[in-house]
Task: inverse folding
């Protein structure tokens, strides 16, 4: 904690801060605590180390659950995604690769600062799965549609510089200035009226009416995760070989 600012760190740097079920639960609990703590005004979300903000889900743990049809183990409420009900500002400090589930976390935050070596992408389709934590709904509403479709359909990442030009992030800075810039923005937000700030975010979030899209995404994603390809792709990733898809 830094006065009115909470700093939340994804902390598995040896595996690029890949998300386990425990980490997802801890993140949800931490964000809930932040939301309910009247002394806290702004959260800064970042990753440990200098290599990765978050490389997505830990495939070895989460994919077997998803391919068995247990999407609810990751998405317990089909109408909600990361930070859907959080009306205090969240600033992302993207310290490295922001890929797959990492990008889906980013899409739930409000102001985004990236280190100049960061990369952004949704690699799921390369491995026969889909980014089911809100990307299909949020991404096309936050950046130009052609770029959103490029990220969703090719699985190829983009640089921090391109993310900045296209509006995916607000600002790109040298890595050693990242947290300073994030704290500077958070401090600016803390100087504004707390009720006005919360209301501005709540109206913006609630008026977007994304819940129906999230439910559709979960329903349609389940047919992908229960497919043969969804088992083959992550298996190939873990075995470090090209996947052999059958389209079923």
Result:
């Amino acid at each position: 904690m830094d006065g009115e600012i909470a700093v939340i760190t994804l902390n598995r740097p040896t595996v690029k801060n890949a998300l386990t079920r425990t980490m997802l639960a801890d993140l949800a609990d931490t964000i809930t605590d932040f939301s309910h703590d009247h002394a806290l005004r702004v959260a800064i979300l970042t990753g440990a180390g200098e290599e990765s903000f978050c490389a997505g889900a830990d495939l070895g743990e989460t994919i077997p659950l998803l391919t068995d049809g247990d999407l609810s183990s990751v998405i317990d409420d089909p109408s909600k995604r990361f930070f859907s009900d959080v009306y205090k500002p969240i600033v992302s400090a993207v310290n490295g690769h922001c890929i797959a589930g990492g990008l889906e976390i980013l899409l739930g935050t409000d102001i985004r600062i990236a280190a100049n070596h960061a990369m952004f992408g949704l690699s799921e389709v390369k491995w026969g799965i889909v980014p089911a934590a809100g990307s299909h709904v949020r991404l096309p509403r936050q950046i130009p549609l052609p770029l959103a479709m490029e990220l969703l359909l090719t699985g190829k990442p983009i640089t921090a510089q391109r993310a900045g030009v296209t509006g995916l992030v607000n600002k790109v800075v040298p890595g050693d200035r990242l947290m300073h810039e994030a704290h500077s923005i958070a401090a600016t937000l803390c100087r504004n009226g707390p009720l006005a700030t919360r209301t501005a975010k709540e109206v913006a979030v609630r008026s977007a009416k994304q819940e129906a899209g999230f439910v559709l995404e979960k329903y349609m994603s389940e047919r992908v995760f229960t497919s043969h390809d969804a088992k083959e792709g992550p298996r190939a990733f873990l075995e470090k070989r090209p996947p052999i898809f059958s389209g079923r």
In short: The mean pLDDT is 92. The longest strand covers residues 5-10.
